[in-house]
Write a structure and sequence with these properties.
Elements: E1 2-6, H1 13-25, E2 30-33, H2 44-54, E3 57-58, H3 62-69, H4 78-90, H5 93-101, E4 105-108, E5 111-114, H6 130-137, E6 144-147, E7 154-157, E8 171-174, E9 188-194, E10 199-205, H7 209-219, H8 224-231
Parallel strand pairs: 1-2, 2-3, 5-6, 6-8
Antiparallel strand pairs: 1-9, 4-5, 7-8, 9-10
Helix pairs in contact: 3-4, 3-5, 7-8
Length: about 230
């Protein structure tokens, strides 16, 4: 069974449709979304509709929580605050209620899923040091835990010297971002997990970021949100 694990779509319709087309072409049978469905981008309603239809499992991201409740918007980056308030106006009450209902973490298909990390998920932890990672490994009991939030794809093993996913080891896997990559590579990123082979690989693909940038400008969102898509930051 192949599972596409997406994260940080951030209301980027062009990136999401391309990612799902690529996942389908690669034989993905299920789709999991690790949150931040909304925030930053120009197409919150369309993206929420697609994720609600296509994803078998969705967990809550920090931008989702801010948009759904209107709380803690001020802790987001300045351009993210503008987008979050705009998204609250654009989304239906039903969509806002759906976002608010999402769980912080979930376990399915024999793996753990969280937006930022399974330890204190409500704090949206950053996994930047060995100590950060060690704390996260203590918070899940499965072999694999998929996360997003950093917008930077990465694979981290609990075993030193193990650099690719294979049976017999435990891993934290950051799937990267579909809608706003930040590893200086503007191509969208998601993870493809083959449960039978026990492998996970990152998939990168180009999408029409110029169209997304035009939508951002038309909506009156900060130009920085479009500029960063071209630079992958």
């Amino acid at each position: 069974m192949r599972i596409a694990v997406l994260s940080d779509v951030h209301a980027n319709l062009e990136a999401l449709t391309t990612a799902l087309e690529r996942a389908d072409a690669l034989g993905a049978e299920h789709v999991v979304c690790l949150g931040d469905v909304v925030g930053y981008g120009p197409s919150p309603s369309e993206v929420v509709e697609i994720i609600r239809e296509r994803a078998d499992l969705v967990v809550l991201g920090n931008h989702d929580a801010a948009v759904a409740t209107g709380e803690e918007i001020e802790v987001l980056p300045k351009d993210g605050q503008v987008a979050a308030r705009k998204h609250r106006e654009m989304l239906s009450d039903d969509d806002l209620a759906w976002l608010a209902s999402l769980p912080l973490t979930s376990e399915r298909f024999g793996a753990t899923f969280a937006h930022a990390g399974p330890s204190h998920p409500e704090m949206w932890p950053r996994i930047e040091t060995f100590g950060d990672a060690r704390e996260q490994f203590t918070a899940f009991g499965t072999d694999l835990c998929f996360v997003g939030h950093s917008h930077k794809p990465a694979i981290l093993s609990e075993t030193l010297g193990v650099f690719r996913v294979r049976p017999g080891h435990r891993f934290l896997i950051d799937v990267g971002s579909v809608g706003q990559p930040r590893d200086h590579d503007p191509r969208l990123s998601f993870a493809l997990w083959d449960t039978e082979e026990g492998t996970v690989g990152h998939v990168r693909a180009h999408y029409d970021h110029a169209m997304t940038e035009r939508r951002i400008a038309k909506l009156g969102l900060p130009p920085s949100l479009g500029d960063r898509l071209r630079r992958g930051v």
